[in-house]
Design brief:
465 residues, Four Helix Bundle (Hemerythrin (Met), subunit A), Rossmann fold, 17% strand, flat, binds guanosine-5'-diphosphate, binds magnesium ion
């Protein structure tokens, strides 16, 4: 992998492609200033390599045959106090595709290499400015869909969780060092016995801490990345109308003709601060039409993979065979909310049978056309996701599946180590489990992460970040 080398200078357009007030071409690496010297002409004739750190300068980018490409502001941030800990130059030019591309080309012609996705952040990681969990938090900040998601991501970016994880790891390293020392010196059985008791007590504290982090993980993941909620039910009960009411816009097509929605439509809603991807499905019913058939198949898949199901019934209609069939499909899965829509019309529905099949299911009455009941529905969704507790964006927690599985692995090995002590197995064996536990938590923090895992993380970034 060439990007692990840090001796070259990288460059990329760091602003989104399209028309904008300004656009930024960013350079990072040891030749950033030298390259800037060749293409930037300031009003007073001074060169970027002479500029102080954290200063901004007015001038022009000049290409071949002294042709002026754009009028710019150039910012210099010198190593080590920069995003990457390397020399950084940012060229603020006009935000059009052509000036940005021309400036980037010029920079590349003068010795920079085009950055890979996320490579600036990767350098910040490789140069130890941030750890891998903070790098992941950068992406979460960029992608935050709600205020709450942003706050949770910023909390991680500022290192609240990293510090906790680092402390756990260094405590484990300390315990391991003591065990290794005791293996060499333990002649006296008495000393070893006392040592084992102390070690066990320390490991138990770490175990508790890890378990707490794992129990909070779901909340952390939901706040950052949200959940998927699928809206299902028979045709014409008001699924698409409900989706539009929650989104507060007309996203899905609503008609009086059953079977209008044939494809699944997805849109992110902000439900009480939680990003919720709403999936509007084709009404589930047997159909002869191939397009509708495919839509129905997709609906059934969506229901299986969703975190939450909004099962919609028509207040104005008796439960019919199709509703019952959907209920059969839903039987056994959790996180379902029953939405009885069209409450403005006359009551026809009888819920006794439904309640028998799904005892304890939350039932919300709505009218999608005037949005009444929608707020109560949103409250219920939030309560169900967080099991009645209010979510806190300020807790330091695991934020994704990668971190969670590393933490789980670490805990499993830690438990093995504790068992080994209890069973009075040799301390050599305890040390093996502990080392493996430390390696797993190191994967989470990035202390012992593989290059492959790194590549996977940074490949999700955009170029220029
Ligand atoms: N009276 C009334 N009509 C509704 C309500 N919700 C939806 N509708 C109407 O029911 C029909 C079907 O709605 P639609 O959202 O397309 O249902 P879907 O097939 O389940 O997606 C449309 O004519 C809607 O205007 C409601 O709460 N009250
Ligand atoms: Mg529909």
């Amino acid at each position: 992998m060439n990007s692990i080398k840090l001796d070259d200078t990288i460059a990329a357009i760091s602003t989104p492609i399209g028309e904008g007030g300004i656009g930024i071409v960013r350079l990072s690496g040891r030749d950033s200033l030298k390259i800037a010297d060749k293409i930037f002409v300031s009003g007073n004739g001074k060169k970027p390599s002479g500029f102080k750190t954290y200063t901004i300068h007015y001038g022009h980018i000049v290409g071949r045959e002294k042709k002026v490409i754009d009028e710019v502001l150039l910012t210099v941030m010198r190593a080590p106090k920069s995003y990457t800990r390397e020399d950084i130059v940012e060229i603020n030019c006009h935000g059009g595709i052509v000036p940005l591309k021309k400036i980037l080309d010029l920079v590349l012609m003068n010795g920079a290499r085009l950055a890979e996705p996320g490579e600036f952040t990767k350098r910040a990681f490789l140069n130890n400015r941030i750890d891998i969990m903070q790098a992941e938090a950068v992406l979460d900040v960029i992608r935050a869909k709600t205020d709450l998601s942003l706050r949770a991501a910023m909390n991680s970016l500022q290192g609240a969780f990293s510090e906790k994880a680092r402390n756990i790891r260094s405590e484990m390293l300390d315990i391991l060092a003591r065990i290794e020392a005791s293996i060499d010196f333990a002649e006296e059985a008495d000393v070893e016995k006392r040592g084992a008791k102390d070690t066990l007590a320390r490991l138990r504290r770490i175990e508790k801490e890890m378990e707490k982090l794992i129990s909070k993980a779901q909340e952390g993941k939901v706040l950052r990345h949200g959940i998927r909620a699928v809206i299902c039910g028979s045709p014409n009960v008001g699924k698409s109308s409900l989706m539009n009411a929650i989104l507060k816009e007309s996203r899905a097509i609503v008609t009086r003709i059953p079977g209008t929605t044939r494809d699944t439509i997805e849109e992110t809603a902000n439900i009480k601060g939680i990003p919720v991807v709403l999936v509007d499905t084709a009404g589930i019913r047997p159909s002869g039409h191939p397009a509708e058939k495919e839509g129905v198949k997709r609906s059934e898949i969506s229901v299986r993979t969703a975190d939450l199901v909004l099962f919609v019934l028509d207040y104005n209609r008796k439960i019919h065979a199709n509703d019952s069939k959907i209920m059969d499909n839903l039987k056994g899965r959790d996180s379902i909310i029953m939405v009885i829509n069209k409450k403005d019309l006359k009551r026809q529905i009888d819920l006794r049978r439904v309640r028998k099949v799904f005892p304890g299911l939350p039932v919300i009455y709505t009218c999608a056309t005037d949005s009444s009941g929608i707020d109560e529905l949103e409250e219920t969704i939030k309560k169900l996701i967080f099991k009645g507790k209010a979510p806190s964006a300020d807790i330091a927690s695991v934020s994704n599946e990668r971190q969670l599985s590393a933490l789980r692995g670490s805990l499993a090995d830690l438990k093995e180590a504790m068992e080994a002590i209890k069973d009075k197995v040799s301390m050599d064996c305890v040390a093996i489990y502990l080392r493996s536990s430390i390696a797993a938590i190191g994967e989470m923090t990035g202390h012992t992460i593989t290059e492959e895992a790194l590549d996977r993380i940074f490949s999700e970034f955009c170029i220029g970040k």
